[in-house]
UniProtKB/TrEMBL annotation:
This is Uncharacterized protein. It comes from Chromobacterium violaceum. The chain crosses the membrane at residues 48-70. Keywords: Membrane, Transmembrane, Transmembrane helix. It comes from the Bacteria.
Length: 71
């Protein structure tokens, strides 16, 4: 099962290695107009990190707005 999962991931994501390196098939280059799973993964990681960094800042700014502006 682990072998099949790793092989499935290796077919779709560039940074995952095949379980058996000698059997790596040649894959065609992705079409420039198409989005790959790597693009979605990068976007998801960026969104998660942005949320972690920006949520506390927005919470403090919202609290300050309520306390000092709306009184």
């Amino acid at each position: 099962m682990r072998y099949q999962v790793q092989e499935w991931l290796a077919e779709r994501v560039r940074w995952v290695q095949y379980p058996r390196q000698q059997f790596i098939p040649k894959r065609p280059a992705p079409h420039p107009g198409k989005l790959s799973i790597d693009d979605f993964l990068k976007l998801a990681v960026f969104g998660y990190v942005a949320w972690i960094l920006l949520a506390p800042v927005l919470a403090v700014l919202g609290f300050a707005f309520v306390v000092f502006v709306l009184k």
